[in-house]
Amino acid sequence: MEKVALIYTEDYLKHETGRHVEKASRLIRTLEVLENSKIYRDKIIEILKPRKAIEEEVLKVHSENLLRKIRSLAFKGGGRIAPDTIVSKQSYDVALLAAGGGLRALELINEGRFNRVFVLCRPPGHHAEHNRAKGFCLINNVAITAKKALKMGLKKVFIFDFDAHHGDGTQKIFYEDPNVVYASIHQDGKTLYPRTGGIREVGAGGGEGYKINIPLPPRSTGTMALKCLKEIILPIMKEYKPEIILVSAGYDGHWHDRTSDLMYTTETYYEFMKEIVNNARNVNNGKIIAILEGGYDLKYMPYSILKTLEAMSENNWITLEKEPKMSTIERKTVEILIKKAKKVLSKYWNI
Ligand SMILES: [Zn+2]
Asked: Nearest-CA neighbor of 250 among 137, 333, 326, 81?
């Protein structure tokens, strides 16, 4: 059993987005489910507040221009910073608190208080680029956390992103950086926003080989995604030996979530984290920070997050949800994808 810190503040609800799918009720509903869970009652989860990221920390990833844009839009009372991305009156401060959730997590681990931290924050971050807010994201929480980890003296950061959408912002920020591995399993960009994340996007310059992309075809199940994790991403993680593992935890791959065509179940999220935990134990004494990205199905997302937390705390869980079926041809397509990805990546890794 391992205690898990859950970083959360009601201030995360103050990023007001109206009828947008990325709305405050995602967190309200999740907290209700978590507070009724056994791991919460047994005090295995401890809820702690984030701190605000200071601008200097954010500027390690983003431009002054982007921050000015978000700030001035918020000051004017809000508006759209991108066609799909809203800024409200308090969004700038809330975004600093979301990024600060990851920073607080690093500090908790550094102080030796926790090995596992989940940041239940919004707005999400993995589509935000150096100079551009988009895809519901204002600033890139996981990237700011990774940069801070490097600043604190770590040399090897591993980001695993299981959101249904490719984390194009995060990948771009670290594209030439060998100190940050970015590994993502997502729905194929040919069929989903943001259109990136092909197997040949492996990084550039000194960072070549350190970006790992597994683009699953629509209707892929959790079983197939786990196969990709076990056969490609985990062996690379083992070889890389990261000092910290960051997880971009997005829950929109659930088969009930309308924003993707993947067919994950709540159990998929348990299994993803269980595999990461089992590997982390051998590579970095199990230090893991998960940061919330997407996930918009208000019924299933809270339970998927609960499953992640159960796996992080090394609690067992009984399967409740049946996995949708994939046809033989669909399964075969994923098998071929795994072979192709292995071929591309075997130039850099022993897989
Ligand atoms: Zn997403």
From this structure: 137
Select which of 15, 62, 127, 186 is catalytic: 127
State residue 315's pLDDT score: 87
ipTM: 1.00
Contact 351, 236 (CB under 8 A): yes
Ligand 1: centre distance to CA 307 (Å): 18
232 Cα to the center of ligand 1, angstroms = 21
Taking Cα atoms as reference points, which of 137, 24, 124, 10 lies closest to residue 70? Answer: 137
What are the pLDDT digits (tens) for 304-334? 999 999 999 998 766 678 899 999 999 999 9
How many angstroms is it from 293 CA to the middle of ligand 1?
Answer: 7
Question: Is residue 186 annotated as part of the catalytic site, yes or no?
Answer: no
pLDDT tens sequence across 239-296: 999 999 999 999 999 999 999 999 999 999 999 999 999 999 888 889 999 999 999 9
CATH numbers and ranges of domains, the chain = 4-345 (3.40.800.20)
